[in-house]
Specification:
44% helix, Aminopeptidase, PA4642-like
Length: 105
């Protein structure tokens, strides 16, 4: 995280402990899917290589890569629309994530 007291660091190495800490992230809204929320927050915060490590920990815990967000889309549906997120999408697909039928396969 960055802020007035902590400048943003680019290219910082993330420990396994820090990557795993995103498994504990919970949504503010109890109605939101916790698995989707954790994937979204990890995607927003991590570099592709750290995100791929996170996906390994996520799957090892038996979490759902195909969890849907409030709009019915998976995290892969969202990421697939971002042209600079090919490596993130590839990591998800390699781990078994699928797009929803509405988003196209």
């Amino acid at each position: 995280m960055s802020g007035p007291d902590k400048p943003k660091v680019i290219g910082e190495e993330w420990s396994d402990e820090r990557v795993r800490s995103f498994l504990d992230i919970r949504p503010w809204d109890a109605a939101e899917n916790a698995d989707y929320n954790a994937l979204l927050k990890a995607y927003q915060a991590m570099r592709a290589e750290d995100f791929e490590r996170f996906i390994g920990f996520f799957v090892a815990e038996g979490r759902d890569l195909n969890a849907t967000g409030p709009d019915g889309e998976t995290i892969l549906d969202l990421i697939a629309r971002h042209r600079r997120s090919v490596d993130y999408a590839r990591a998800l697909e390699k781990a078994g994530a699928k797009k929803t039928a509405a988003a196209g396969n």
